[in-house]
């Protein structure tokens, strides 16, 4: 069957997110280096790093509930403008030499809070733009994921390091410009359907209903558990990877950078073949296969005798992750009701973010009490166990049933006031699209 073309508006959204991802890559390299120009205290540096993760932990589900109340396109471009202003203020502080760790941590927190709203709104807006067509969503997410990896993983970090050499304010202004360009492009996108707000219902109650919708649906729960458990495993590996590369593989800083590049290259390849895998195997089976590949690749990394085998293992793992990050979100966007999309997306993301610190602690503890390879072995086993547990939750049969139900239900009912998951059998009144 011939798949419809992506609408012209997608090109602007893709460009906006590519430019913004490049700015994120610039800041990913520049922010820790900028912090190092202010202090060498490890705890102070940890405060800056932690500040960037707190918004998802504190406001993840509530942020999704707000996005479901607000116009999604407006939320995206206003958030971009706000982040540009924040970075301009930070650049001015750096220029006038009044920059300090508290201000840097505060801006890191607010930038991450803006990212929470933008990412959630973008995830919810894409199905509206593409009409919730599963094949189109897979193609679109593959392109978005590939561009994000290339811009934030390949181009952005070296640019950030180079720009910081020109002055502390330069990478901050570059990222601010990227947000301005993104805001301009997003502002020109077609308007989506207006959200159906229920002023009688509290924000907390709506947030709780969105989280309940995820936990009561086995397919959505399986899709949420994979990145959550995966983050525990991957953070355990990331915590010891540099030390493992230095002590067991005998490579230095440049070689370590090449290892990370191999993983990013695999991610690009995986995103590119995700739609093909979904068509050939079915989305449910494809997700099980990519998760299995990730677990086996991590075990291959643990047993790697040299940098070449380690690089190959990371590339294969990256490919599995890249495909998973296309197939999973595309399926979620195709089956979740529009009025719940923000809450479901933010709940899934919050689970993944909350799991990450446990992975870092697990990796450090296992490496300290056992051997440097132990966290990597444990991560591989954890990934394979997670795959076995969630395989029955994301089968092709469940996926096809969910897609069929979504195709026959324009907008499900909303018994959220009772705290339960929406009943997809009962329609509700929504504005015409």
UniProtKB/TrEMBL annotation:
SUPFAM superfamilies: MFS general substrate transporter (SSF103473). It holds the Pfam family MFS_3. It comes from Nonomuraea maritima. The chain crosses the membrane at residues 43-65, 223-245, 251-277, 284-302, 308-329, 350-368, 374-395. Residues 423-433 have a biased composition (Basic and acidic residues). It is found in: Cell membrane. Residues 405-433 are annotated as: Disordered. It comes from the Bacteria. This is Predicted arabinose efflux permease, MFS family. Its main location: membrane. It is a multi-pass membrane protein. GO terms for cellular component: plasma membrane. Gene3D superfamilies: MFS general substrate transporter like domains. Keywords: Cell membrane, Membrane, Transmembrane, Transmembrane helix, Transport.
